[in-house]
Amino acid sequence: MASATYRLAFEQPIAHLEEQIKQLERTEPKSAEIHDAIRALKRELAETTRRVYSQLDPWETVQVARHPDRPMLTDYLNLLFDEFVELHGDKFFGDDRALRTGFSKLDRYKVLVVGHYKGKTLKERNECFFGCAHPEGYRKAMSKMRMAAKYRLPIICLIDTPGAYPGIGAEERGQAQVIAESMLEMSRLPTPIICVVIGEGGSGGALGIGVGDRVAVLQFAYYSVISPEGCAGILWKSHDYAGDAARALKLTSKYLHELGCVDDVIEEPLGAAHRDHHQMASRLKMYLLKSLRELVDLPTDKLLAARYEKFRRMGQFLEGDAAPAATANGRPKAT
């Protein structure tokens, strides 16, 4: 288990043990007692990490999903896929760097990869607007998906965005309309589509490439109609209530699977994906290959009918007395 360079507040007990281990490993010469102490601390570290991550509340899960060391699109492209060839431009306006597309190979399967990219350096983050795609990004994705469908190439979508870009220019160029068109287009593309939320799955920005035959989420990712801060800003006019909003939105993998919003939850390595990129990539690859084996040989009519029924069945709601009550100050009860 690798140690992270950036630590979240709730990870302090883990950080303390990691520092103790590093100090002992630097000790020279190493006696039998030091080796025993290191082994004991490593066992304690594993147990502590397991305990901490099994008790995360929804807001802490959101922080893990946003961890700066968490593997991003480019990491998975390097670790999972071969011969990635990026495809650029929407043939209308420009090339959105927040939404990347390209042909690649996953073992024996030729696929189209579509994914959000947040950027790692400040220059990259500004270039791709921290993963918030513009209309031209979704138009680019739609165009490349149609080309993939023409040759019956499976499509793999890796979702990691806080939401579509909310600026005036994006709205003027038809942000809402193009996301709706993308969802409609994906619902009827005659080729297998697998969607995985690898980090943040925020709002329509995520849904724009989120309609597929299989929709999965990593264990410590989130998928929601709005970010917790956006929800808190609307309901309580303050981001201070983001934690309350995260609990009310039921946006973590456990709730998403229970509610039928996702088909599968992909387990992350001990201490989350940011601690072991290779192991996380291996688990994601196993899931993608399993899904491809199940989907690629299905007749097109059965594939599309199953996709339609999958989304028609989605959603649960309560009415009247069955609906959960709010607290006296208008904030939802934590569950």
Would you kindly provide a written description of the structure presented here, covering whatever features stand out?
The protein is an alpha/beta fold and 335 residues long. The chain has helices at 12-25, 32-54, 58-65, 73-80, 122-127, 135-150, 168-172, 175-187, 203-207, 228-236, 242-249, 253-258, 277-295, 300-312; strands at residues 82-87, 99-106, 109-116, 155-161, 193-202, 214-218, 222-224, 264-266. Helix 4 (73-80) crosses helix 13 (277-295), helix 6 runs parallel beside helix 8 (175-187) and helix 10 (228-236) crosses helix 11. The model has no long low-confidence stretch (mean pLDDT 90).
Write a brief structural summary.
It contains 14 helices and 8 strands.
The CATH topology of the largest domain is 2-enoyl-CoA Hydratase, Chain A, domain 1
> In which range does the helix fraction lie?
40-55%
Strand content: 5-15%
Question: Under the CATH scheme, which class of the largest domain?
Answer: Alpha Beta
Give the tally of β-strands.
8
What's the gyration radius in Å?
A: 21 Å
Number of helices: 14
Largest sheet: 8 strands, mixed
Spell out the helices and strands N to C. HHHHEEEHHEHHEHEEHHHEHH
Low-confidence stretches: none
Q: Would you identify the CATH architecture of the largest domain?
A: Alpha-Beta Complex
CATH superfamily of the largest domain: 2-enoyl-CoA Hydratase, Chain A, domain 1
Give the end-to-end Cα distance, rounded to a whole number of Å. 31 Å
Mean pLDDT: 90
Shape: globular
Number of domains: 2
Category from helices, strands and their pairing: alpha/beta
